[in-house]
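The freezer alarm interrupted the setup, so I double-checked each line after restarting. Inputs confirmed:
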Amino acid sequence: MNDASQASLPRHVCIVMDGNGRWARKRMMPRTYGHSRGVEATRRTIEFCARSGIPELTLFAFSSENWNRPQEEVNSLLRLFVQSLQQNTAELIDNDIRIRFIGERESFSAELRDQIRESEQATAHNRRMLLNVAANYGGRWDILQAARRLALDVRAGQLEPENIGEADFGAALATGDSPNPDLFIRTGGEHRISNFLLWQMAYAELYFCDTLWPDFDEIEMQRALEAYAGRQRRFGKTAEQHSGAG
Ligand code: IPE
Ligand code: IPE
Ligand code: MG
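Predicted 3D structure, all chains:
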């Protein structure tokens, strides 16, 4: 990768991995088959992002609202999480990738919680890329838990309400001191955020593609990165200010 493309590489990419169910249905297979094939796309994407030098990747694996799916599908998804962590933590270590779960984990089984803790601890010192897995995550949940955390600090006399700034609020979110996502990708053709990183995505560049998640590959990811590199991020300023003419 040359310097120019390196400079326009996002520091943080977040992805709504959507379309597993439709991918399976098109093949007359159960939705759960789509989820297990989706894991392969997830592995490819993690590996490609790490190799490309993207420092942080956040994947939406299970939303707060996904509990409303048929019990059998939910169970199969949760089983798949345990399995993929068991099978792939060694590869994360080999690739110097740190994994961190964001979301409310108390609702998970003891087995899944233990496996999450184990994978987080085993990779805690890895530095090449930070991989956040959003599981039982919702953007509104995140904003609420941050508000509660700050309220507790206020009650404890450690914080004055009038002094709460954007940085304090951001730090109380599940993503903590991570940079905000520069690029948001959603596969599967829907054009919505579905309660992903609401606060953090305020200025993310949005990229949507029709490809169903199990078909997402390096070429598709490269396309998203190229689209991102071609965007002018103005953050409220004028185009002239950004070209240096204003
Ligand atoms: C995304 O694929 C995976 C999860 C939400 C866990 P879907 O299961 O939403 O697939 P579609 O959107 O029904 O095709
Ligand atoms: C968003 O996909 C959540 C994940 C990919 C984990 P959904 O398929 O649940 O979103 P909606 O229901 O189409 O908005
Ligand atoms: Mg979906």
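Quick read of the result. The chain has nine helices and six strands.
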